[in-house]
Structure formats: structure tokens, C-alpha cells
Amino acid sequence: MDCIPEFETINGSDAFCTRLYSVDSTANSAQPTLWRDLDLTMSSIVIDHVSADGTTLECDVRTSPALERFFSGESFRTEYDVPIEDVPDAVLVIPVLAQVCPVAWANGADVYVDEVDATFAAALDDVQASLCSMHDFLEGGTLYAKETVDVQREAGGESGLLFTGGVDSTCSYVRHREEEPTLISIRGWTITPDAADDDKWDHLRSRASSFADDHGLETAFVESNMLSFLAHPMLLAHYKRHVDGAWYSSVGHGLGLLGLCAPMAYARGMDDLYVAATHWEGIDLEWGSRPDIDDHVRWAGTQCHHDSYDLTRQERLDAIADYIEAEAPALQLQTCNVRMDGNCGECEKCYRTAVGLRLSGLEPTDHGYQFEHEDYREIRTALEEGRWVLGQDERYMWEDIRDRARETEPSSPDEAAFFAWLDDADLDELVSESRSPLSHRILHAGARNTPARVYNTVYPAWRSAKSGLQRVRSR
After folding, report:
1. 243 and 210 in one domain?
2. What is the CATH number of the domain that holds 257?
3. Do 290 and 392 sit in the same domain of this protein?
4. Do the domain assignments include residue 43?
5. Separation of alpha carbons 301 and 297, rounded Å
6. Residue 312 falls within a domain, yes or no?
7. Which residues of 171-195 are buried (b: 16+ CB within 10 A; e: fewer)?
8. Do 53 and 167 share a structural domain?
9. Which structural domain, as residue segments, surrounds residue 448?
10. For 86, which DSSP code?
11. Quick one: residue 7, left, alpha or beta (phi over 0 = left, psi -120 to 50 = alpha)?
């Protein structure tokens, strides 16, 4: 590229690694202030503008024509609850890089930025190596920066924990409670920035705040359009066939959610940032948040940690049970896939958590789940009839429950009958019978050759209509 003078390789250049090149703008008087003169006929993403106004971060992104379909055209925006104006630009750019780099790697595209924190640049190198090793469809790419900045921050002695109030994040709190971590809640993934999700966000804020008040902790709330900034329906259409879940869950969310916290963590002086593990040792699933991803994420003064990977979900419930017995007898969990203002008690995750609580010696009704022994029959029927869409992660979680049930004396005939059935059940068959319907797969396949503006309009409308039909049928 003619506008780029000689490059110096700053970090790794092995296959599947990000190669970061730093450009000395004084070496060539023709060097542009921004990458505005870059030839975008090649596959590339340019971070054109990063600004901080009070508590608001905003970034503009340009892409080559072939990549336009993966971006909605919105500016990237994130709102924090602390001022970020004094955060260095090299750190402010981290949230948007954390979202766009996996998209670039899926397309063999290069990413261009004016400046970036050197520690985070090295982290991208490591994260890309892990993701490319995990996903065959990722091609990798190169990160170009005019300047890598060795940003320094004194140790602040603070820590943070991504928190929802579910089993995983509550277990992580229990294990790190002596650090008194700030509880961080994020709006932008499972809770969208849309007004329709305002109530869900209010419920999560209220739950996190109540938990923090009860335990003498601080809270941090982050709101971002990271998924509406990306054209997530188009990413799903192109890559769903390669992954067990959706794009963000299978590829982007470990780097994406942690990177989103960088300006806030810098401003608050967080030395450690924890994200609770979903899976555990021995589960080798293509998932976007794993130790070989999250443990690599770092930036000036902050190291991220994939927490409690050494415990199965049942063992995490055991840790919570010990904490409840010793310190918090009234603790409530929130894991529901349907509601945010409590647990519905009828979805797969509610039933699975209730069974796990019983296996850890707790009464589910004391901790947020209406559950009777007769419900074991409903769980078996739902699993046998394929009412719930299950992935491989749910398969492993029911296997974890089965392993513990084999060591546990049933407390009722219904429980004994269910555990006996589960002991002989073919979990692989139960998962395969619950896969997404053919209509979903046809839509995604057709969308790969559909103009982005058309698909991004049609897909949400189709999904809304489909969801409404399913709700009518379920009544």
C-alpha cells in the first residue's frame, strides 16, 4: 500500500497470529493523520475516529465493500457510569477493536487504527491464535497501527467481576469475595439497547444493586450497541453453519465483553477483571469465552481471568451451597432464559438449576425456583419430546447432573424415577432432536447471498413473527 512507509514488526508473526505494525508518522511527511487515504478495495476495516465525551465513548468505522454487510452503519457507542475523558486514546480504542477484530479474522481482513495500547495489541495476538486454532473458518488478519503506546497505570488495588446473579457469576463472587470486586453488568448482548428491553435492564440493574448493597460492594453499569453496531443477523447467516451457537456466543463474547470494560477498568483502577466460566475442564467446545481466550486479554494495568474453569457447574452449586450455609441463607439466584424479574420455573435452565440445587442439598424454593417433586415428570417429558432447543453445552450440563445423581440418594419416588431414566438416557439423541428447525437453516443459507440491507430488514421481522407464532402455540 503506497500510503504506508516501512513497517517494524512489533509482535508475533507466526501463522494465525495478529501481526502488529507500527508506523512512524515523522518518517514520511505525506503520511496522513488518519487512514483516510487508505485504498479500501482490499479487505480491510478502518477505525477512523474515537472520542470520549464525559461518560460516552463513540467510534466511527469504515470497511471495504465486501465487509459492509457485516456492519449496520451505526457508530459504535458505549456509555459508562464513570468519566472516561482522561483515559488515553490507546485504551479508548480497545472496546471497538474487541468487537471488529473477530469479524476481520473471519474474512482475512486487516484492521487499521491510529494508536493502540501495546499490552492489548499483544493480547490480540494471543487471542487470535486461540480463536483461529479453535475455528477452521477463521482466516486471520493483520493489525496496523501508526503508534503502539506503552500505557502505564499505577496499581489501583481494585478488581471487577462480570455479574448477572446466575450460578457462574455468583460462584465467582463467592470465590473472590475477599477482594470485594465491583459487580459489572453489561447491556448490549442478551439485553439489547432497544427500548423494548428497558424493563429487562432495569431488573438486572436492580438485582445487581441489591446484591451489591447486601454484600458491601460497588457496581458498574455499561451500555453498548456492540451487537447492533455489527450486523449480527448477517454474521449469523454466514457463520452459523460453522458453530454450535450464534456468532457472539461461539466466537466473539469473551474478547468482546472484556474489551468493552477497558476504559471503565482503567478509570476505576481495576488490576484484575474476572469473567465466570460457562464450561469446565474436559469440555472442548467451540465457545467464545474459554481460558485460552479470556486469560490472554489484558491492557495497561489490567489482567483478565476466566474464572472457576476448574469446577463443574454442579461443583459451583456446591460452593454456593457452602456459602449459603455459612453466610447467606436467603441468597437468591437468577438464571431464567425467559424472565429477568425472577425465574419462570418452567424453562430448561430453570428446571436444570433447580435439580442442581437439590443435588447440592438446597431447597430450590428457598433460592428463587418454584419446584415440586412432581416437576421431574415434566422435565423428562420435555426432554423426550424435544421441546427445548439444546446445544452441546446443555448436554454436558445434564451429564454433570447425571454423574452427581449416581452418587446421591433420591429423596422421593419422583426423583428416583427421573434419576433412573436420566441414567439410561441417550443425551446425544436428546440434543439432536432439539436442533433448530429447517426453516431457520434455509433462511440463513439464503441470506448469505442476499444484500445486507434487505436481510437486516427481513430477518428481525421474520424472527418477531416466528416468535409470536411460537408464543401462541405454547398457550
Report:
1. yes
2. 3.40.50
3. no
4. yes
5. 12
6. no
7. bbbbbbeebebbbbbbbbbbbbbee
8. no
9. 438-474
10. T
11. beta
Can you tell me the distance from the alpha carbon of 331 to that of 165, in angstroms, rounded to the nearest whole number? 10
Residue 206 lies in a domain: yes
Average per-residue pLDDT in the chain?
86
Both 61 and 191 in one domain: the answer is: no
Q: Give me the pLDDT at residue 475, please.
A: 34
Q: Is the same domain home to 245 and 137? A: no
293 lies in a domain? yes
Same domain flag for 288 and 357? no
Count of structural domains, the chain? 4
Looking at this protein, which amino acid is placed at residue 417?
A
pTM: 0.86
**263 lies in the same domain as 182:** yes
Last residue of a domain, one of 307, 327, 349: 307
Cα–Cα nearest to 235, from 107, 110, 78, 61: 107
* pLDDT tens per residue across span 50-83: 999 999 999 999 999 999 999 999 999 999 999 9
Q: Which residues have CB under 8 Å from 409's CB, separation 6+?
A: none
Q: Please, what is the Cα angle at 250 between 385 and 229, to 5 degrees?
A: 115
Are 243 and 364 in the same domain? no
Please give the Cα distance from 218 to 156 (Å, whole number).
15
Could you tell me which residues are beta bridge partners of residue 19? 142
CA dist., res. 318 & res. 400, Å (int) = 13
Angle between helices 253-260 and 118-134 (to 10 degrees): 160
Closest CA to 257 of 170, 187, 197, 164: 187
407 backbone φψ class: left, alpha, beta (φ>0; ψ -120 to 50): alpha
Q: What H or E segment, with its residue span, contains residue 439?
A: helix 438-447
Sign of torsion over alpha carbons 388, 470, 230, 55: negative
Helix, strand, coil abundance in the chain, percent, nearest 5: 45, 15, 35
Last residue of a domain, one of 149, 167, 185: 149
pLDDT digits (tens, 9 = 90+) for 276-302: 999 999 998 899 999 999 999 999 999
Grid coordinates 447471498 are at which residue? 449
For residue 75, the Cα-to-chain-centroid distance in whole angstroms is 20
Q: Is the model's pLDDT at 446 over the cut of 60?
A: no
